Amino acid sequence: MKQDRGKSVNKQENLGGSCLLIDFLDSRKRQIAILIMAIFMPISSNASLTCKGRFVNPITDVCWSCLLPISIGGFSIGKGSTPRKRDTKNPASPLCMCSKGTPPIPIPGISIGFWEPVRLVDITRTPYCMVNLGGVSLGSDMRKISSYNRSYGNRTVHNSFYHVHYYVYPLIYWLELITDFICLEQSTFDVAYMSEFDVTWNDEKLQSLLNPESILFGNHIAQAACGLDGAAATVDMPLDSMFWCSGTWGNLYPFSGANADHIGGVQNSSLLTTRIIAKMHRIGLAQETSTSDGSINGAICRKSRALKIKKSQYKLQMVNPASTSKGIGCFPIGLSDMLYSSFKEYPYDGQDWGYLIWRKKNCCAL
């Protein structure tokens, strides 16, 4: 009986070993099959969506030379990080006067102009992925996953859809690098906008309620004129009069995450960053802060709400997946992405982007 039990145990062990071997071979076959399917499966951005990103390092990722040029009246100090001095027009006189107190009394001051890092933007394929906050995910919704489609044959299509997050990011004031300077935006860090909660971000009909004038610019003539804006942005500064253009990046309308002319990830992310700035202006959450009016109690004494974007008062700097601080630094809206897109888009880690927004500020320092 003991011998029979020993034989049965040995048989079970042999059977168990055989089953393990069969399971191992089956798993290897499944892995090989999956590998073959992955090789021959059409490439799709929805195949593997992960939240990637990192925190912005104020020391290494921020181009602090983008603060320049600093102006005192019509005199400028420094040239910034770009090859050419790119700046808006400043008041001619270094002296200014703004009324303060009750009753209002004109108080003299100094007319100062500088570039300030004030906003941060995520461009991501994955819903609720906070790229500039270390790649943390706040949730998931498969119905809101972004996409990129490219087809060839009788018809060529390059369209994409991405989500955008907009942060209030007054970096200089937040880090207390400069204290007691009245011209700085004195606010705290905040997540001001997430496209996942905006029903108009992927609805063209609802978008038309915010920007009904877009119907005027959806034609070949208006788009061809944007070539002038692209040339101006590449040489110096964009044209504020051509507010429907985003230079070489494409059409500023509609204010949504859909792009029918997706040329590359860097070009598309730069365009969507400009669109969210324009959208913030349209809904009354952005201001015009640059001016050449240095008259008594003029525009230099206050910030005014602007429902139309003033492109020349903004510069962008890429901070994710790689920073442009050691290269071109910051660049005006509409600049050809050929000047800063090298090695800024790559598989897995390099398909979501982050931009630091620099805004020109003219003020009367009292």
Kindly summarize this structure in a few lines.
The chain has 366 residues and is of the alpha+beta class. It is built from five helices and 16 strands. It has one domain (55-365).
Key features of this structure:
366 residues; alpha+beta; three-stranded antiparallel β-sheet; 16 strands; 23% strand
Mean pLDDT: 81
Q: Quote the distance from N terminus to C terminus.
A: 105 Å
Low-confidence stretches: 5-25, 31-48
Radius of gyration equals 27 Å
Q: What would you call the shape? A: globular
**Which structural category fits the helices and strands?**
alpha+beta
Relative helix content: 10-25%
Total count of strands: 16
Domain module tally: 1
Number of helices: 5
Measured by DSSP, the beta-strand proportion falls in: 15-25%
Q: Topology as H/E string?
A: HEEEEEEEEEHEHHEHEEEEE
Largest sheet: 9 strands, antiparallel
Model description:
Strands 1, 2, 3, 4, 9, 10, 14, 15 and 16 form a nine-stranded antiparallel sheet that branches. A three-stranded antiparallel sheet has the order 7-8-11, with no helix packed on it. Strands 5-6 form a two-stranded antiparallel ribbon. A hairpin with a 5-residue loop joins strand 5 (129-130) and strand 6 (136-137). The chain contains five helices and 16 strands. The protein starts with a helix and ends with a strand. It is an alpha+beta fold and 366 residues long. The radius of gyration is 27 Å and the shape is globular. The protein has one domain (55-365). The model is unreliable at 5-25 and 31-48 (pLDDT under 50).
